[in-house]
Write a structure and sequence with these properties.
By secondary structure, the protein is mainly alpha-helical. The chain has one domain. Helix content is 46%, strand content 9%. The chain contains five helices and two strands, in the order αααααββ. It has helices at residues 3-11, 27-34, 38-43, 46-59, 74-77; strands at 80-83, 86-89.
Length: 90
């Protein structure tokens, strides 16, 4: 049974081979799985999806909740400043 089959069957109150796993995941957890600094995920929201994919591959989740993603022009709208060697979004 695939994750999708498992989730749909559960929602339809049919029997499944095991309880579906559909956790709440965050960019921070993705950064830990990919062993990258969390600040990289804050400064580049596309890395969040790499983290989600890595968590699905590693933990075999049946599904996860994700946002629709940043706007297409996110890079041109991002303002980053550095103060005393620490990077901030402005």
């Amino acid at each position: 049974m695939t994750g999708k089959d498992r989730i749909i069957a559960t929602l339809e109150r049919r029997s499944v081979d095991r309880i579906p796993v559909w956790p709440v995941v965050t960019a921070y957890l993705g950064s830990r799985v990919l062993q990258r600094p969390y600040v990289d995920f804050v400064l580049n929201p596309m890395l969040v999806y790499e983290g989600y994919r890595a968590m699905i591959d590693r933990f075999k989740f049946d599904g996860i909740d994700i946002c629709l993603g940043p706007p297409a022009d996110w890079e041109s709208r991002r303002v980053v400043i550095e103060i005393d060697g620490i990077t901030y979004l402005a």
